[in-house]
Amino acid sequence: MKNCNSCGNAIGDSKFCSHCGASQECSSCGTEITSPSKFCSKCGASIGQTVNTQATTITPSTSPKKSFDFKKIPWFVWAIAAAVILLLIFNPFKGPNTPKEVVTEFMEAFEDLDEKRIKKLIHPDERDIVDFSGVPKDVKVKIIEFEEVTIEGDEAYVVVIAEMSSKKLGLSEEDDFEFELEKVKGKWLIVDGL
């Protein structure tokens, strides 16, 4: 009974060790290898030990993919998401960006006697003339229609028909109001019509 030249286990007449897989013959000349060595004593070829080359099959995981469970999302995450969506849709910080929107905002701010809002809508050179001292606190402004909106480059002309009323003054009349606007740093501002 012959022993493996590499691990020393009994292998019988096999050409390869069933324990470690080492070749028992020179792969180049076929000479029997009797002792552990790196080279064949007859031809000088390198003696490599064969390695078990059994194919390993990798099977993909058969566990089902877990679907995302929306019910596990906390309520406050839904609230934040809803607030962001509403902010993107209605964006209260955007402000008016067309001559028509600026005039509408101006008329609403005038009705509220909101000097701060009005000053944001008019040209900086005109802001010091804003004065509500003679305006009754119950004044109401209702826009009937925009008669004309003309935009030429960075200048615009807007004519709006509106009804102004005040119970305190016994006033209720419809009139047309003319506004001239100028685009300053990408923003429309009223320069005349105050």
Uncertain segments are: 49-55
Largest sheet: 4 strands, antiparallel
Number of strands: 4
* Main structural class: alpha+beta
What is the end-to-end distance? 118 Å
CATH topology (level 3) name of the largest domain = Nuclear Transport Factor 2, Chain: A
What is the H-and-E element order? HHHEEEE
Average pLDDT taken over every residue: 80
Content of β-strand: 15-25%
Number of domains: 2
Quaternary: single chain
Adjacency order of strands in the biggest sheet: 1-2-3-4
Descriptive key words:
single chain; 194 residues; alpha+beta; Nuclear Transport Factor 2, Chain: A; 2 domains; 4-stranded antiparallel β-sheet; 4 strands; 19% helix; 23% strand
Word description of this protein:
α2 (99-111) runs antiparallel to α3 (115-121). This protein is 19% helix and 23% strand. Strands 1-2-3-4 form a four-stranded antiparallel β-sheet, with helices on one face. The chain is rod-shaped and about 130 Å long. It folds into two domains: 1-53, no CATH class; 99-192, Nuclear Transport Factor 2, Chain: A (Roll), CATH 3.10.450. It has 194 residues and is α+β, with helices and mostly antiparallel strands. It has helices at residues 75-90, 99-111, 115-121, and strands spanning 140-152, 155-166, 171-184, 187-192. The chain has three helices and four strands; from the N terminus they run αααββββ.
